[in-house]
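User: I've been going back and forth on whether these two constructs are worth ordering. Before I decide, could you fold them both?

Assistant: Sure. I'll take them in the order you sent them. The first construct and its structure tokens:
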Amino acid sequence: MSRSQDGTQAYRAAERALWRQYGVEARERFVEAGPDRTRIRVTEVGDALAPPVVFIGGTGGTGPYWAPLVSALPVRALIVDRPGFGLSAPVDYSRGPYGALVAGLLDDVLDGLELDSAAVVGASIGNVWALLAAERLPERVRHVVLLGGGPLTSEITPPPFIKLLRSPIGALIVRVPQKPKMLRGQLKQLGHGSSIEAGRFPDAFFAWNVALHRSTPSMRHERAMVRAVLGRDGFVPDLRFDGDRAAGVKSPALMVVGSGDPVGSVDIWTRFVDGLPDGTLRVLDGAGHLPWWDDPEQVAASMREHLAEP
């Protein structure tokens, strides 16, 4: 067995353990998307006859990253491994405009899943993907849900870690073996200190994340994407939904942010959501960048209400 196959098996085992923690049975499939027909993995959870909801995560956002949330939602959850992340093949983000490439990928993913339309949920940079889909594929995106802050407006400056990832030092950072202690420190910086102390992040979460970093080339591919979307003057325009672009997102949009999220602020996200034609903001007191890990019940309740709207 090759080293690559060993890594894939180790990662799959860590995923299964985290899914089991939440009593979830997950199924996977692969679809082809983009100009090079890139192989994209989609993990499916829930009743196949329930309303379809596509989930797109941020850095580290694959499969059971969503477990506490999807286990509390009565939907057909379709969790996309972004290209190069988890078990999806990479794409070359330098080949063209980021927005057009992302919209094309998601258009193809919906085709591959045989869906005319779906709700789209994003987190962190996955929020950009959700908004790009709503902007460029309006007939296919019924609702949008944005969880946590992201590089969505010109008021958001690149976080120090993202700038380091883009720099030459980033080539070394992505090769440093992840350890549970390192991950705990990162989560505390993202506003999840109290949830770690309360045990809301189980041991299986840390084992899964370590396997993602050590057994897949995800972070090396993520660095390549960061280098394509972050220039010397900040994030490329395709990531920014200011002014007329925000006004052009017609799908009903829900944004859920934690008051402890270091990406942006409640004031920034209030202004941002006010610029959307049909936007709603929910603020979870004390929650961090991944609010569904701090309070999955509250996030699920807000989403159920939002997705039930016409």
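The second construct, handled the same way:
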Amino acid sequence: MVLNSISGLFSQDMAIDLGTANTLVYMKGKGVILNEPSVVAVKKNGRGAGKVLAVGREAKMMLGRTPGNIVATRPMKGGVIADFEIAEAMLRYFIRKAHAGHRLARPRIIIGVPSGITEVEKKAVKESAESAGAREVYFIEEPMAAAIGAGLPVTEPKANMIVDIGGGTTEVAVISLGGIVYSISVRVAGDKMDDAIVEHIKRKHRVLIGSSTAETIKMTIGNAFPGDALEDVEVKGRDLATGIPKLLTMCSDEAREAISEQVKAISGAVHTALEQMPPELSADLIDLGIMLAGGGALLKNLDLLLKTETKLPVKIADDPLSAVAVGAGMALSNLEILRNLER
């Protein structure tokens, strides 16, 4: 108890958006202070095997470029922990970095988790956070955090629909009176789009590219709905027939075709939520519409596609990338909301 009190003096409450692609850390009174890739580089064998060599941005630069004795990996898959030890090392790194390396830091932490997370998966997240130095661990469902962070009036008796598209999961939720009325979580999001682009280029052009190149294609010319102008980008990869490097050009129409299945799955989740929500709340959406958050909200013309398909207003959060972290941080600052969350 005394140790907790002492460590509390060196700690500040934190909210963590533990994402498949990126981890964001929000600190009370400071806002989002860290936004780094959820990647860890570990020594694989030999002397010092298992040693963490790099975390975050530095580790991401090593993806696909490491020698045989080093492996750069993502400990999160589909929004949940896939590698317990590496996730713990990553959390410890982010907690210490947020506290300027102070080893006595034992903060209270609130973590955003997918709405479809199981109790076993939740327990793994909690144990990782506690082992990494958290004094107390709370959870908040990502769609609720995203809605709060996006500025939706979640406590009012009106329907608020949030679509949070991350790296591993897409969360669609209808929120009213401070609670989630209906939610659906699909494990189709940004990472699956990257994989689809890799497979499309491999199948159509017989060229192999890495996931980082696929992500660049998605972010530059990726789109969900035809736009006014056709864009293209140069793609560098390895020719599967000759084994030598090859340069090709990819246009925005081809990029849209490559990710069409994933976009369809996200659109399908939105339609399912609209069909399942209570009719009393459906009427509210005619005026209030749908709010998009998460990195996937930045996919070009996704709002236009959903607007065309649902005939409802569709808006993108002011800062979609940090909506979950900011919303979780706001919940951490509100003791009444915090007490209602399951610890």
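Notes on the second construct follow. Residues 1-10 have pLDDT under 50 and may be disordered. The longest helix spans residues 260-276.
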